[in-house]
């Protein structure tokens, strides 16, 4: 939709996402991923400008991703690796992991150091940095820790930091290091306030990371513009989804996981050219 030719590998092959009461399927392991990649190499079609990774449940698979990214970067030094370090989230103020805990050291020690862009939520940023976030200043310090681990762009996609607009808003923060022609480094930091939607969606992190990849490609020198387009598109998708879900569920009824599936096809125009409804503040 945003102008990229895509090759996709499913890290899991599930009947449905895990927001449902039941699911069946398989988790791809390192050997199976390597076999797929070897097939690409044998046909010389392993030429990429970007790599994007998200939900993973197997630590050997994750380690193999790192090996593949390193090899791809050797043949294309300009390749950008975008990593959504999907590990867990906070509910009612308490954080918990929904992937095996042995993935954390792999993310921390192997994945983040080779990533160019990472998109953790607050809980994941705390896990990776080993620091808690209670204020905007602490969040900025955590992003500096993550920069020092490797990535030039860090976006904390959601947090429970207080908003001046009240409890109906979520805070997202971004930080991008850029080298000037004279060799010095400048860091752009932004803050965004997004209206909460009273529902549990699955796939929002995937959509956020994919759109951020596309918009940072189109606006490489402005994290502010890239994030405004990404978050505004997210707003349109989620608002459309909750309207449709509530209409299907009926008045006073809680929408089911099936009814809360993101309305992606219906939101094609909003993804391609989002009306900016969330503006970023430069810090």
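Sequence proposed for the structure above (283 residues):
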């Amino acid at each position: 939709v945003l102008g990229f030719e895509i090759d996709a590998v499913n890290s899991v092959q599930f009947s449905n996402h895990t927001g449902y009461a039941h699911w069946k399927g398989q988790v791809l392991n390192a050997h199976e991923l390597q076999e797929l990649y070897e097939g690409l190499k044998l046909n010389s079609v392993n030429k990429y400008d970007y790599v994007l990774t998200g939900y993973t449940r197997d630590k050997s698979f994750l380690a193999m991703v790192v090996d593949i990214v390193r090899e791809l970067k050797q043949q294309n030094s300009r390749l950008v690796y975008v990593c959504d370090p999907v590990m867990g989230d906070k509910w009612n103020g308490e954080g918990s992991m929904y992937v095996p805990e042995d993935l954390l050291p792999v993310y921390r020690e192997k994945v983040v150091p080779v990533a160019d862009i990472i998109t953790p939520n607050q809980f994941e940023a705390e896990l990776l940095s080993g620091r808690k976030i209670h204020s905007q200043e602490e969040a900025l310090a955590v992003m500096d820790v993550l920069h020092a681990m490797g990535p030039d762009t860090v976006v904390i996609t959601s947090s429970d930091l207080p908003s001046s607009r009240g409890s109906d808003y979520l805070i997202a923060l971004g930080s991008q290091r850029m080298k000037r022609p004279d060799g010095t480094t400048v860091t752009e930091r932004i803050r965004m306030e997004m209206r909460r939607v009273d529902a549990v969606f699955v796939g929002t992190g995937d959509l956020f990371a994919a759109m951020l990849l596309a918009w940072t490609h189109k606006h490489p020198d402005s994290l502010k513009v890239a994030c405004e387009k990404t978050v505004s598109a997210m707003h349109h998708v989620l608002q459309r989804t909750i309207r449709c879900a509530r209409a299907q569920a009926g008045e006073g009824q809680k929408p089911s996981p099936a009814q809360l599936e993101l309305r992606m096809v219906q939101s094609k125009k909003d993804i391609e050219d989002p009306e900016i409804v969330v503006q970023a503040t430069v810090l």
